[in-house]
Structure formats: structure tokens, C-alpha cells
Amino acid sequence: MAITVTVLYANVLDGRVDVQKYLTGHAPKVIKEMGPFGLRGVRAVQLHGSPIKPGADKQYLLQVALDWDSLEAFNVAFKATSEKLMADIDSFSNLSPLIMYGEIILEEKFQFM
Hints:
The protein is an alpha+beta fold.
């Protein structure tokens, strides 16, 4: 069962996420360290709020999705790399991320001309 591990950084008072440092520092480390364990893909989204409630407070600053073939593959990778990668979060954020996972039940890519 393919899964996505979602990592969310909340928009809280005095919370900080430096997206450029994430992109140039932490993300390459995640890919390098977890790639050999079967990481299938990574998506990072800088969140800006609700498109249907303009002006509403945004709940999260950054969303990262890590795609895996299985929860077991992620768990092996996390056990082997978590100490190094979790310690590196301080290099771009002062937040503790919310980490969740779910089964991929639909994935479509579209290319319109």
C-alpha cells in the first residue's frame, strides 16, 4: 500500500519557517538520507491560506509530502535517519512539525495543452 507522510509546520505566534533554507538545506538532506530507503517522491508547498476564505488566518506555513511504497519502508528510513534529520529542523524553523501519514487512494497527473 503506497502512502504519503505529510509534515506540517503550523502558523503560530513567533513561529518561523525559512523556506529558502528548507529548500537549499533540509530538503536535499531528506532526499539524500531517505532516498536509499525507498523514498518515491517529495513535494513541498508554501501555504498562503484559504482560497475560499480570503483573509482567513492560515493554519500552516509549510506542507511537505513524502511518498513511500509502504509504511514499513518509511519506518525503516525514519528509524535510520530521524536523529540526524529531526535535529536539522532547527536550521530552518523553530517549530516542531506535525507528522501524519495516509494511504494514497487516488493520484492523477494532468497535462493540458
